[in-house]
Design brief:
The chain has 199 residues and is α+β, with helices and mostly antiparallel strands. The chain contains 8 helices and 5 strands. The strands form 2 sheets. The chain has a 3-stranded antiparallel sheet with strand order 1-2-5. The protein has a two-stranded antiparallel sheet with strand order 3-4. Strand 3 (161-162) and strand 4 form a beta hairpin. The longest helix has 19 residues, at 33-51. The chain is globular. The N and C termini lie far apart (61 Å). The mean pLDDT is 86.
């Protein structure tokens, strides 16, 4: 199938991927633009996974202050090189993540960081709710797992839908930045402060 230069340019504008990658994506997907976007995203994910074991000690701490100085967030985002840390794209990502944290208030960065005691408490609550609703014992585990998946997606930063574009999660944004920079980018940690709130 012949892929037009116009389609390659259009896909490049959509994804910021290289011209040859765009051509390959369109060829692999029979010229279907949406499938080609997904193909490139998946490629970015697999490349990002290969980079995940590389050290990321550079980066920046971004801040977001909201509500007349009554709510503030600091987030540390790391990458491999000082060069990437100083780009506008990296800075914008860090600011967007800080603003997202201010708006959504996640408990932690990733599922691995969830406090096991919190997880067990939630699981017990969901079990009790299901029992009180008279749900059959044989489907309890399925119900609880579904509710736990929702709890994780709402509580962990990487799983949350991005407030400025709910079609993407924070993990999607992170993987897009990894694909663009060619580096291992990590959201290391964050702190959210509300004026007068007890620690």
């Amino acid at each position: 199938m012949e892929i037009s230069v116009a389609d390659i340019k259009k896909l490049r504008e959509k994804t910021n991927a290289g011209m040859m990658d765009c051509k390959k994506a369109l060829t692999e997907c029979g010229g279907d633009m949406e499938k080609a976007v997904d193909w490139l995203r998946q490629k970015g994910l697999s490349v990002a996974a290969k980079r995940a074991d590389r050290e990321a000690l550079e980066g920046q701490v971004a801040c977001y202050i909201h509500a007349g100085g009554k709510l503030g967030v600091m987030v540390e985002v790391n990458c491999e090189t000082d060069f990437s840390a100083k780009t506008d794209e990296f800075s914008q990502f860090a600011r967007d993540v800080a603003m997202h944290i201010a708006a959504v208030n996640p408990l932690c960065v990733s599922e691995e960081q969830l406090d096991p005691a919190v997880v067990e408490r939630e699981r017990a609550i969901y079990r009790q709710q299901a029992l009180e609703q008279g749900k059959p014992e044989k489907i309890l585990d399925k119900i609880i797992e579904g509710k736990m998946a929702k709890f994780v997606s709402e509580s962990c930063l990487l799983s949350q839908a991005f407030v400025k574009d709910t079609d993407k999660t924070i993990a999607d944004l992170l993987n897009e930045l990894r694909a663009k920079t060619g580096e291992n980018v990590q959201i290391r940690r964050f702190a959210r402060f509300v004026l007068g709130e007890q620690a």
